[in-house]
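Bit of a strange request maybe. I'm writing a small parser for structure token strings and I need a real example to test against, not something I typed by hand. Could someone generate the tokens for this chain?
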Amino acid sequence: MTTTTPTVPIGTTSLEPDVRRGLYRTMVLIRTYEEAIRREYYADKGPGFDIGKGLVPGEMHLSAGQEPVAAGICAHLTADDAVTATHRPHHLAIAHGVDLDAMTAEIFGRETGLGHGRGGHMHLFDPATHFSCSGIIAEGYPPALGQAFAFARRGSDRVAVAVTGEGAANQGAFHESLNLAALWHLPVVFVVEDNDWGISVPRSASTSVPSNAARAAAYGIPGVRVEDNAVEGVWAAAQTAVARARAGEGPSLVEVHTLRLWGHFEGDAQGYRPDLEGVAGRDPLPTYRAALEADGVLGPTEAETIARAASDRVEAAIAAAKAAPLPDPAHATDYVFA
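Reply from user aminoacidic:
Good idea to test on real output. This should exercise your parser:
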């Protein structure tokens, strides 16, 4: 049997100029942040340290190219809504309003970080915005159900958004979560970021359907796929899914065909990717900027002004993180629980 998955058009000219500028501004801030973190990850610590180790401890998974997902989804959320992200979380954290200074300090392993420097970049937890992430594949789906269940029991219109990659869509947690959310009619929006490469395996070699959005039908919920990494397409799909959840109509699944510009992790040689030559040409930032300028939404110097503001904000957060104290080893078990 052939399953047809609904798709969302590349863009929608019905969006107000302020909304379109806001989406672009969010995407620029995310990219500026990722580029700066990447720079610091490889920076020389100074005398006595190995060059190329940088000030950022541990592995680093960056989301350059996936900005449209975060910007388009989170544009419909408030700090009262919950977001659970993946091991590649910075774009979603920034778009959802996680404090940039505290997040940066956590990434640098500093005491002023979200987790007092104990968690690092794959374990960001912010109660103020109900944001969390994890290095475990599909781990964010079940916690989102718990949050959505609590929201529904309280009679609120708050929603939970659970994000995972296409490589996690074959995990049991993915299917169990969709089933239970549909059964209990929970206010959840499930999001799949399909960047074509789950670590080193293409989707076509690991998944029996061409789109994970088609799997929504098995649980009796709407499923839609957004092609071309289009931020306005994501915005439109998220608008429908979030409104449905807020109205008490249950969960939805949104899959976005997005793009991972860089490796699965920093240091990944990406020998498994035959598509690298054309990746840069599909960068969503210059594509969206060109569209906004052509439509007269961005003036001649506005893009540069947005870029400077983003750079100033990011560099301030990095400077604050570098100046913050490291955790005292004597208190290594503080703020840690199991």
